[in-house]
Design goal:
Layout lengths: L6 E5 L4 H12 L3 E6 L2 H10 L3 E5 L5 H15 L4 E4 L14 H26 L4 E6 L12 H21 L4 E8 L5 H13 L17 H12 L10 E4 L10
Parallel strand pairs: 1-2, 1-4, 2-3, 4-5, 5-6, 6-7
């Protein structure tokens, strides 16, 4: 198994991509701290997933990060893998976006990732390991009506590169993953808005692969990046977008 004996922390583990990553890591032999603000969802996952340990966690709060990492340190003595996956999405025109709206997205998507890397690296550097930050194709291009979300995902992409430079000396690799359309409730919300804006044209038809990704497909990419098979990969940005950013639609 590719993660035998590894200790991992996955945020936003209660559903969607985070759930798929947690399940995949567990199958590969890792002990996975399944952290989510929805503790019931994390606990449900743990009952179905051997090796998963549920933890209530709000990524936007510094004290919550300290709490979960202190628990891992007490019980495991180390952390090998961190996946900053937790995130939220909002569609609202720029001129209608309040500062409260904007800060909510930034606090969770951007600040949560920053806190995760800063606090998590302090434990990971004891033995070395890997961090994967989940960004988006919106970390590469704009999306009408999603200024705060786009800002947060560009920031995650940039912070990943800085962290890769600064943490390499501690044996920590840091990469970002950029999913496009996925079969999750959050991604479906964005696709529905785009479909309405394009007079019912299905945006998936513009993709070379003509479909949304299964969460398991993106989880496989994350698994590769945290495994020893990716030992020379750091500071990279990895697309899982069905060809979305390869070029304009035909």
């Amino acid at each position: 198994m590719r993660l035998e004996g590894k200790i991992a922390l996955v945020t936003g583990a209660g559903r969607g991509l985070g759930e798929a990553i947690t399940r995949r890591f567990s199958l590969e032999g890792a002990t996975v701290y399944a952290a989510d603000i929805d503790h019931d969802a994390a606990k449900k996952l743990a009952t179905e997933c051997s090796g998963a340990i549920p933890f209530a966690h709000d990524v936007a709060r510094e004290e919550s990060w300290k709490s979960v990492l202190e628990a891992i340190e007490r019980s495991q003595g180390r952390l090998d893998i961190l996946v900053n996956n937790a995130g939220v999405f909002q569609m609202k025109p720029l001129l209608e976006t309040s500062l409260v709206d904007y800060r909510r997205i930034i606090d969770i998507n951007q600040q949560g990732c920053f806190l995760g890397m800063r606090e998590g690296a302090a434990l990971i550097k004891r033995t070395g390991g890997a961090i994967v930050n989940i960004s988006s194709t919106q970390g590469f291009e704009g999306l009408r009506g999603a200024s705060s979300y786009v800002a947060s995902k560009f920031a995650v992409r940039g912070m990943t590169k800085v962290a890769a430079l600064e943490l390499a000396e501690f044996g920590i690799r840091v990469n970002s993953v950029h999913p496009g359309a996925m079969k999750t409730s959050m991604a479906a919300e964005g696709l529905d808005v785009l479909k309405q804006a394009q007079s019912s044209h299905d945006p998936l038809d513009d993709l070379p692969l003509k479909r949304a990704a299964e969460t398991e497909e993106v989880a496989s990419l994350v698994l590769f990046l945290v495994s020893d098979e990716a030992s020379y990969c750091t500071g990279g940005e990895y697309l899982a977008d069905g060809g979305m950013l390869a070029g304009p639609p035909a």
